[in-house]
Specification:
The protein is mainly alpha-helical and 179 residues long. It has a single domain, classed as Orthogonal Bundle (Arp2/3 complex 21 kDa subunit ARPC3), CATH 1.10.1760. The protein has seven helices and two strands.
């Protein structure tokens, strides 16, 4: 869908679908398959945001992800410092919208999902290094600690989200996503 269509006749549809995807993301964040002791969990919260990004593009995807992150932060997020809160919530979830840059074909969806996951991982790793390095065992590099800690829940989340999304998109979307 073009930006002009999103602002014009199609604008209401884009906004309503965005609100639904944000709501689903927030609800899915409470359905935890596994939780880490110092934050982070394996959920399907990324799937609706990735879907929306592929359907409407990166601009709308980043907006929806950022809103989802803010809502999750307000409803139970752990914030030790304002910058950490921004990195772990609006920036991390907003970065999922970058998936929309890679197209709707299978290859683009795979690359976009991986790139969006890597961007979210970067946000969490930076937050971990700057604000949670004290949790690292003595003598361990805070970068390595933060990377290993965050990969331990984000990698399984990305794998499960990718599998679930692939199944749902192929099963229930009879036609390709259109912008």
């Amino acid at each position: 869908m073009s930006e002009a269509a999103a602002r014009g006749r199609g604008g209401t549809k884009v906004l309503v679908e965005g609100a639904l995807c944000v709501a689903l993301s927030v609800v899915f964040s409470y359905i935890k398959l596994f939780s880490m002791p110092q934050g982070g969990s394996i959920t399907l919260e990324m799937a609706p945001l990735l879907y929306y990004s592929y359907k409407y593009g990166a601009k709308w995807g980043v907006l929806a992800g950022t809103i989802s992150g803010v809502i999750q932060m307000l409803f139970g997020g752990y914030v030790a410092h304002p910058l950490q809160g921004i990195l772990d919530y609006p920036a991390a979830f907003g970065s999922l919208g970058l998936a929309g840059l890679f197209g709707q074909e299978t290859r683009g969806v795979i690359i976009g999902t991986a790139a969006a996951g890597a961007a979210r991982l970067l946000c969490h790793v930076l937050s971990g290094v700057v604000f949670f390095a004290s949790y690292a065992p003595e003598g361990q590099n805070p970068w390595i600690y933060s990377l290993v800690y965050n990969v331990s829940f984000l990698a399984p989340s990305m794998i499960i989200t990718s599998a679930a999304s692939w199944f749902l998109w192929n099963k229930f979307l009879k036609e390709p996503l259109n912008r």
